[in-house]
Amino acid sequence: MAELDPSEYTIAELGPEIKEIEDVATLEEVLEAERNTKDREGAKTLLESRIEKFSEDDDADVGDLDLSEMSVADLGNALQDIDEMETLESLLEREAEEQNRDSATRLIESRIDSVAGSGESDIEQTQQSPEEKHPELDHPTADKGHVRALENGTYRDMWVYCETQSGALLDVSKEMLGKARRLMDEYNENYDANERVVAVVIGNDVAGLAEETIGYGADVAVYYEDDRLDRFRHTPYTEIFADMARSGGDWRDYDEPRYTLFPATNNGRDLSAQVQAELDSGLASDCSGLYIEESVISNPVKTGRPGENKTFERVLHMKRPDFSGFEYSTILCLDNPAREFHPQGASVIPGSFELPAFDGDREGQLVEHELALDPEWLQVEVIAYDRLDTGVDLSDHDVVVALGRGIGDDPTHGMELGVELADTFEDAGVGVSRGIVTGSYDFAGHIEGYTHEERQIGETGQVVAPKLYIAAGISGAIQHKVGMDESETIIAVNTDPDARIRDFSDYFIEGDLFEVLPQLTAALKAGELDLKAVADGGVGADDGGDTDE
Amino acid sequence: MEVILMSETYEHYEAVVVGAGPGGAATAAKLADEGIETLVLERGVDAGAKNVSGGLLYAEQSAPYTIDDLFPDIRAAATERPITEYYMQNVAGEKVKEYDLTSLHEHDTAWSDAVLRRRMDSWLAERVHERTRETGGGLLTGIHANGLLRENGEIVGVTCDEIDPIRADLIVAADGVNSELARDAGLMDWDEPEEWFQGVKATVDMPAVDDRFGIEPDEGVAHLFSGDLFEGVRGGGFLYTNTDSLSIGAVFHLDSLVEERAEPHELLNALLTHPLLARWLGEEYTEVEYAAKLVPDSKKVAHTSPHKDRLVLVGDAAGQMQAQGPIIKGMNHAVSAGALAAEAFATAKRRNNPESAGKRYERKLKESGVMKKLRPKRYERLRPIGEREKTTDVVDRLLTSPIGRVGLKAMDSIGLVERLYSSPFMSMSIPDTRTPYVTLPTVIAEELGAPVRDRSTVEPPSLEERIGELTYDTDIGNPHIRLRDSSVEASGTAVSACPVSATDFGGGCYREETITTNGDTKHVVSLDTQPCIECGTCAVVADTDWEHPGGGKGVEFTRG
Ligand SMILES: Cc1cc2nc3c(=O)[nH]c(=O)nc-3n(C[C@H](O)[C@H](O)[C@H](O)COP(=O)(O)OP(=O)(O)OC[C@H]3O[C@@H](n4cnc5c(N)ncnc54)[C@H](O)[C@@H]3O)c2cc1C
Ligand SMILES: Cc1cc2nc3c(=O)[nH]c(=O)nc-3n(C[C@H](O)[C@H](O)[C@H](O)COP(=O)(O)OP(=O)(O)OC[C@H]3O[C@@H](n4cnc5c(N)ncnc54)[C@H](O)[C@@H]3O)c2cc1C
Ligand code: SF4
């Protein structure tokens, strides 16, 4: 430990210099150094008063207790000031390592017991009124959680929110129905019950889809349709689902669903969080495994009494991949003594469960939910929407013409030449190297669409294997190569005779693509060149070596 | 299987440590030993997958903590070789003068081993996971912390790309150089090239290290290189022996790289192909990995008060990387600082005042002498004279003048030059001018050196091949760096300074392009982040929005 040499300072300087030091041992070292050197009264007083100031503070630092220096009686006294469990435990350990005195060990252990015991009364909480809990506030309100949660509610059935898109059920909706079916069949057997799978479908013109859910495993399909609900909107969808969950009806005899499942899609995540909050429960998001089992819990928040175990029955165990994806957390949603957490809800990652087969013979009940849509809920309007392109698929063409940074001298024209060449074939696609995708070229509007990532060929783009691959101005980096070298015939056009692509081309045309591509196009159009034959390994260019054209 | 009960707030830990390099590992181990519930987040698929070092891990006698205090088995399990010989090679053209600086290397050194970071860090991470698990935490890989969680303007946790935010009583930013957390807290910025070094390195396969260097398996050699190797760029080279490979690289002043528009990979090649190395590299050159990373210069950026609210900075994130002449000490200080931060929090918690952890940490850095090494007073005093261009010129001219040269010879004949070099006192206060890096060693070599006879047959791989050999998990459609200004003036420097880009190379991250619109020609820069090795250089030298890639994404080093 580097210490301060007090003799280097005047008394006036020393004050500010030690202002930062609060560690008593260090201060004592400095004091000692002062005694051994200049031994100035003023300096010593300064240091002593600072030591005094921080010693008190330090007494509480039992980590520094020197057990070997302490009699058992000393220890007993010191222990009375300690009520930190970890500190006591570390003392116990140190005693065991250092002197291992029975009497001292007993003393520490008994202190541990009394500290642990005193905790109990703290934990046993009574429900406080908001005024008691927040005396500092003018108008305290109860924590929101306690406003609407039910008391002694009855809960039944497993509800599945079935998301739809473009007039069809999403696969994940069907996957959840299949899983819910299996879970509830087992549940009914284990608990000798008769609870159901309830599908919820909301949207415009969805009665048919609601009916379809029965074929995938639902016993009841509750739906709500309104032409204003053609696109998902947060508020009305939430209000409708929550209303369905809360209101009665002659098809059911319970207060709220026991379990709810939502898809972990963008809309499903949005809806699930809000609905579960609305119903004053919680949500386990992005789950990939579900099972129902009892669970023995010792956490006092849940049992109400520390040190007691309580068995919760029919608990939905919701497994979600943990952070890293290597481990799973299993999330439980359990009632507290003073507050119920139902429905137990999860959102489910698409693809987690098997897609069930459709069974047209299954029977079930179709229920149309009644509710007046409050115009307030519809304040947010969807004014425009776009369906993302599924992208360009270059893998099913006979021919692919690909362009690279060799077009740099006149990028738009270079791309045009490539497109023109592709047009001379019956079935050709246009692709690009990554160098084009990430370049800063300013392409003219009509050609720009050809230069986007969706047309990139290679390791991080598409992998293609057409009959004929024409690579113009592409150097042939390994990451490009892996996307095209299974092509039957590869023709490269490049000004650089040492370009790497030459190593894996069947034909290498050394030349400027701005000249070579138009020549190829013209020759093809005129029928002078039969590249198809070239590709088939027949006529055309020389004997597989280099050609000039 | 872990059971988590649903709660209404974010998950809370007593401590969250971001980054599992030596700094993070030390902090977490010490926290766990203090019984503190600690969660460690590491963005690599595996700890070490993102990390690069030259590779001498020091255990200083004067350090408050060394890595084997915290991980007693580390030397047996995860380091390469103890470094038992340490030489400085002064190079001028093909003339070389060697000095034995083993005594400088051994000054205040309990031991020093060469390490490869993937191996070391992933071993450390396993130990950390075992220990933090016992206190209710653990280590998660593949998680990128992307910022700080604030409540009422106060830092209370971290936010991540992959998981929900996490709250903690102590937040440790051990996330290395280019710390996103330190930046978010406003404690560090990435603006000035002169505050950083750039390190580039090749790991070279060499099964016969013992024979080539004439050493036993429990011995190792370090060579440092300075002189005119690097075309006037200030910096030095290194060669360290690993178990069956070599770490060869160089560390440059970033401002000098920028000024000279130098290509780091070419400078590295100049070292690799120098005839001096031929006797060690022999005929067959097999490069197994090319890597680079920024290195902070503690003399300029070590934060003297590296904390804010519940956040503390540790290691490179706090600029705690000491360049002591040729000796580079970052890993050891990260370890010391990490353990001190953990100690500080443990005390603060015992005193029921966890918020005081930052202050206590700051004080411990000072009292333990760590801060004094990072920011030596002597340097502060010498710098104003030493770094003034004029003085540099005068000193340079003096050194290169016949009189200076005669003096040098005289000094050398009585062993004074070697002694001067060996002085830890001198090396701590070396000014950042070209004199110590270039002029002096060059003159030494010219005047005192002997020509090297060997011929080098080494042909280093091209950049394209180097990139091709690396492993990437590209986050497609999600570039982690965005160019804010693509003009050559703002970002053109990155074309040369980026270790995986080069002028006239289309396969790099940064490329200069000419675009012509309506007859107007403009020079601009374009960026593709796929070949990026996350060194951090362009965060300083170009105008970018710079983040690390998401957890597990991007480059994956196998040696480091
Ligand atoms: C070429 C070169 C040579 C060097 N030579 C030496 C030498 O010989 N001796 C020496 O002691 N030092 C050397 N250094 C310096 C040394 O490597 C560093 O000082 C040291 O690694 C710092 O340790 P650290 O724990 O602070 O940071 P790092 O080792 O960089 O660890 C930071 C960790 O945090 C992770 N991380 C970063 N951001 C996030 C985030 N947002 N979320 C989650 N995780 C994140 C990283 O993946 C990494 O694992 C050298 C450096 C270089 C580049
Ligand atoms: C992790 C990772 C993933 C990657 N994934 C992909 C991927 O999926 N797909 C991909 O393509 N790349 C990918 N890359 C990038 C790849 O490494 C190359 O950088 C890229 O393919 C280069 O594109 P290019 O050939 O168009 O440009 P360059 O390499 O610059 O080559 C241009 C070529 O054009 C030639 N030329 C110049 N002028 C003319 C002219 N007038 N006429 C004819 N020829 C001319 C030059 O001689 C040169 O050979 C990836 C890189 C990494 C690191
Ligand atoms: S793009 Fe930036 S961070 Fe990536 S390697 Fe190049 S300089 Fe380093």
Ordered list of secondary-structure elements with their pairings:
The complex is a heterodimer of chains A (549) and B (560).
Chain A: H1 11-18, H2 24-36, H3 41-59, H4 72-79, H5 85-98, H6 102-123, H7 130-133, H8 145-148, E1 155-161, E2 164-165, E3 168-169, H9 171-190, E4 197-203, H10 207-215, E5 220-225, H11 234-246, E6 256-263, H12 266-278, E7 283-287, E8 289-297, H13 300-303, E9 310-321, E10 328-332, E11 344-348, E12 365-368, E13 399-403, H14 411-423, E14 428-432, H15 434-437, H16 445-448, E15 468-472, H17 478-481, E16 489-494, E17 507-510, H18 513-525, H19 531-535
Parallel strand pairs in A: 1-4, 1-6, 4-5, 5-12, 6-11, 7-11, 13-14, 13-15, 15-16, 16-17
Antiparallel strand pairs in A: 2-3, 8-9, 9-10
Chain B: E1 2-5, E2 11-18, H1 22-33, E3 38-42, E4 56-60, H2 67-70, H3 74-78, E5 81-82, E6 85-92, E7 95-100, H4 102-106, E8 109-114, H5 117-134, E9 138-141, E10 145-151, E11 154-160, E12 166-173, H6 180-184, E13 196-205, H7 209-213, E14 221-227, E15 235-241, E16 245-253, H8 254-260, H9 264-272, H10 275-281, E17 287-296, H11 298-301, E18 307-308, E19 311-313, E20 322-324, E21 327-329, H12 331-350, H13 357-367, H14 370-374, H15 377-386, H16 389-400, H17 402-413, H18 416-422, H19 424-428, H20 434-448, E22 450-451, H21 463-469, E23 471-473, E24 481-483, H22 488-491, H23 493-497, E25 510-517, E26 520-527, H24 537-541, E27 544-546, E28 554-556
Parallel strand pairs in B: 2-3, 2-12, 3-9, 6-14, 12-19
Antiparallel strand pairs in B: 4-8, 5-8, 6-7, 7-22, 10-11, 11-12, 13-16, 13-17, 14-15, 15-16, 18-19, 20-21, 23-28, 24-27, 25-26
Helix pairs in contact in B: 1-5, 1-12, 12-13, 16-17, 16-20, 17-20
Bound molecules: flavin-adenine dinucleotide (2 copies) and iron/sulfur cluster.
